[in-house]
Design goal:
alpha+beta, 3 domains, six-stranded antiparallel β-sheet, two-stranded antiparallel sheet, 10 strands
């Protein structure tokens, strides 16, 4: 009986070894045929993702594989072998979707660290600003979103009070890189954070550093596809309508020049001329008690 069991066990071992040999031969043949097909059709073999890979996820043999790709369209930074991808325990620094080529700028170096700096566009900077449940859009501003940044501050100038405030849009179409320490763009669930990390150029970083000292910064969530610039205006309490309050402007009194009173010149009274005396011979004529001088003609007639 023991001898029979040993024979059965030996046969089972031989059958298993034969199956493994056939399976390896089949898989090797499939790989060789794929390589041959790639050479014949001028295709290249690159590494692609087999499942979603989030920020910080390690690359393993389970989530990557080799795939044929047009040789003339191989993206820059693509890996040609799985061994090169797995070297040093690389992790994803940007989300990768299934079927997408695994590129060098989407994975970490051989040190296996997922750093936020790898997500920055060339020439851009990452700057953090304070936010709250109100200024952070109630937590709906998440990594990967696009926002406008507003600054609310007291009006400059002498005599401005606590209610003399203004609001400006200082930056438009700014990408949110992280909220607190969460940089995964797939983390879309609303969550209130204390800081928001945004991507701006160097000038924008300087503006944010200065604006944070002048007043309150707020995020305005916008459609990521909306690339149309808007006319930036300053909004004050006067623009709020009847519900707004604005300090009245006190007009300075206008100083007018003194005009001298007109000088009155007393002229001598003009005496009215008496009755005009006729020329030539006259005759005195009494009409009642009134005496008049009447001219006399050459023939003695009046």
């Amino acid at each position: 009986m023991p001898q029979r069991n040993a024979i059965i066990l030996g046969i089972a071992v031989l059958v298993a070894a034969f199956v493994v040999f056939l399976l390896n031969t089949y898989l090797t043949g499939v790989e060789q045929r794929a390589e041959t097909q790639a050479e014949e059709q001028r295709l290249a073999r690159i590494v692609v993702a087999t499942q979603p890979i989030a920020f910080g996820d390690p690359l393993t043999t389970e989530n990557v594989r080799m795939q044929n790709f047009p040789a003339g369209s191989v993206p820059q930074g693509a890996f040609r072998t799985i061994a090169a991808v797995l070297q040093g325990g690389r992790v994803a620094v940007r989300p990768i979707v299934p079927g997408e080529p695994v590129l060098a700028d989407k994975v970490s170096g051989t040190d296996g660290r997922a750093v936020l700096a790898a997500n920055l566009t060339e020439g851009m900077r990452a700057v953090s600003i304070p936010v709250s449940d109100v200024t952070g859009v109630s937590g709906f501003a998440r990594p990967g979103d696009t926002v406008d940044i507003l600054l609310t501050r007291t009006m400059p100038g002498d005599g401005a009070g606590a209610q003399d405030i203004m609001s400006d849009v200082i930056l438009e179409r700014v990408k949110v890189l992280a909220i607190d320490q969460v940089a995964d763009e797939k983390a879309t669930e609303a969550k209130v954070g204390k800081t928001a990390v945004v991507e701006v150029d160097l000038f924008g970083a300087q503006k944010l550093a200065l604006a944070g000292r002048l007043g309150t910064l707020s995020l305005a969530l916008r459609n990521v596809e909306n690339e149309q610039p808007t006319a930036l205006t300053t909004v004050t309490a006067r623009d709020l309508g009847a519900g707004g309050f604005a300090r009245p402007i006190r007009a300075r009194p206008v100083q007018t020049a003194r005009v001298a009173a007109p000088q009155v010149i007393n002229l001598p009274a003009v005496q009215s001329p008496g009755p005009i005396r006729p020329l030539g011979p006259t005759m005195s004529v009494y009409r009642g008690v009134a005496l008049t001088e009447e001219p006399v003609g050459r023939l003695g007639g009046l």
